[in-house]
What does this fold into?
Amino acid sequence: MEFIDYYKILGIDKKASEEDIKKTYRKLARKLHPDLNPNDKEAHHKFQQINEANEVLSDPEKRKKYDQYGKDWQHAEQFEKQGRSKNQSQYQGGHTFTDDAGSDFSDFFESMFGGYGRSRQTKFRCQDYNAELKLNLTDVMQTHQQTLTVNGKNIRITIPAGIENGQVIKLKGYGAPGVNGGPHGDLYITFSIANHPHFKRSGNDLYTTTSIDLYTALLGGETTINTLNGKVKLKVNPETQNSARIRLKGKGFPVYKKEGEAGDLYVTYEIKLPVNLTEQQKALFTELSKLK
It folds into this structure.
């Protein structure tokens, strides 16, 4: 398993405080967020890396294990347990555990526990898998199920409505098989949600734009707009200004894992000016301009 330098990924010193880690992560997350870099695969990859680095370094217990065991920090408890067993068996004149499976951790075991007799095999959890699932914005408007194929195995998962772009979920035990009967690793799925041509998502809120003609804007009236949940009729107040924005409460995006709750939909009006005016229309507008 290749060593990943989380400190280098975040660009911080190993002596950085928890506050330093938090500030650096927030700064990088804002810069690399998929919503700001929709077509930049490199930025998306770096966003995943800084999330992983922050998850480890922002947790004092995980950071301590990472600093001590490096790439094998997730197996720290197993190594420490084996170390205690080694000391006990040495005291009793017995044998210690060895790694007959020839795994990635053989050198690590050798350096920690020495090359003692091969009495029994060591069991340990194996590596995690990472996968990306691409969806459209409309796909995550409702909770639904999908079947993924990972290493030839079909896995049926439930995708909750309201899941975020770049969000990661963990499926325990669906990673690589453990060595010598040890537990499987986990499967981490990163969601990549494509932008919608007419709606912009910000958290649980949606933003869209609709056109109204000059006469409706001046005199008031009604207009019908499309939402991700169907059509909605809106009342337009008289003398509505260009770029005026209204809020439709509860018509936004579903709140993640909160059934029945949703954000708001913000609609911005764009006033469409008439073109190809007749002479009579021009004369009427001229009269109006004189009244001003």
Remarks:
- Helices lie at 6-10, 18-32, 41-57, 60-69, 76-91, 106-113, 214-219, 279-291.
